[in-house]
Amino acid sequence: MKPLSPTDQLFLWLEKRQQPMHVGGLQIFSFPEDAPDDYVARLAEQLRNDTEVTAPFDRRLDSRFAQPVWVHDKHLDLEHHFRFEALPTPGRIRELLGFVSAEHSHLMDRERPLWEFHLIEGMGDRQFAVYIKIHHSLVDGVSAMRMFQRMLSTDPAKRNMPPIWDLSARSGRNENGGGSSLWRNLSHLLGESGKQLGTVPAVARALLRTMNTARKDPFYDSIFHAPRSILNQKITGSRRFAAQSYCLKRIKAVCQAYGVTVNDVVTAMCASALRTYLMNLDALPEKPLIAMVPVSLRKYDKPDDGTPESKQSEGNQVGVILANLYTDESHAGTRLQKIHQSMQEGKDRYANMSPEEIVNYTALTLSPAAFHLLTGVAPRWQTFNVVISNVPGPKEASYWNGAKLEGMYPVSIAMDRLALNMTLTSYNDQVEFGLIGCRRTLPSLQRMLDYLEDGLVELEQGAVS
Hints:
Layout: E1 2-3, H1 6-14, E2 22-30, H2 39-48, E3 59-64, E4 67-72, H3 78-81, E5 82-86, H4 93-104, E6 115-121, E7 127-135, H5 141-150, H6 182-189, H7 194-198, H8 200-216, E8 239-247, H9 248-258, H10 262-280, E9 290-296, E10 318-324, H11 332-349, H12 355-375, E11 386-391, E12 399-400, E13 403-411, E14 420-427, E15 430-438, H13 447-464
Parallel strand pairs: 5-6, 9-11, 11-14
Antiparallel strand pairs: 1-4, 2-7, 2-13, 3-4, 6-7, 8-15, 9-10, 12-13, 14-15
Helix pairs in contact: 6-12, 8-12, 9-10, 9-13, 10-11, 10-13
């Protein structure tokens, strides 16, 4: 028996029919070169025979003294969680994204462990897909990525590899937690550690400086000035998922031309896509949109290629920056430079803080957003309009039972008053975007993939002009 933390309980409390609280991932694989045509069916049979289920996948919800707890499920039915399915013809990416959109809209049965693994055949070009979804109360997105990476190998000859629910032979790290999110930062603020109380004076001073600067400079990223937008309405339970890969070399070339980081460029691509999408709906606010961007705050060496490589000795420090997206700026290059400055200002605020002070400052600045998202009673406290999150993935080409991983796309959470989530991950020499949104609130969301490409092309053209 394991009690749920206050943060994990919050994910359960937030869940409702129009607001499922699970995270997921879509992976596309190519058959091994020597694989028979029924390779996926044989793989499915192998997975069905792997009945060993390790933590946290063997846990279901229960209650002790009116408090939710995780308990071992003695009657776990693997057939409920592992599903072998086929796409409808003609088995294009369009059908695959439609399948994920529908499945990600469905709530999971709380009487069972809160996860599903879908093995999907019926794709062309000798490919297949895996779609995994896990409730956010069980793991966060970063932890889910780590577990998925443990399922992979860099050796294409390796076979008989376990699925994600059976990682008993791998590292036994605790995968529940460790990521950064709005709710985890707020929960951390209420922690019992004496360190947290000791950060109050420094955090208060930093917060006061931010608010004083915002009064003098209206373009400084304060904590209350995100505009009202269609992105921040109540939503339905129906989702639209859109995904696309972009070559990392293209993005790094833009980094070198403008003297910025990869994170700056992908944020600028998102800003450009949002600007075009909202303009086409005649719904672009006059004031620039604000994004919540979780970022690494390690001490950086000076980059040679625009990509910061952190010193390993500095430890893992993650904070949340409220980044001005400058969607009121029409010139792509100028917008990128302003975004870079906005992101750097956010990092500078944390420069002299301890890790505890960083977490608490983040929690305080995001508390108005949390109150608004939870209650909806303070629309003027619109702290940010959209989440843009970057989850690191494998740095080398990876394989699962000889099948090469061609692409991996994060599938996150849309919420009331936060109808769009833009999450991306790095894999090998690619950057993979996964967009999840409410179908009714944000019609034709898939067009944003074209607008992301247009935003990158604009930056490339500006870099050579």
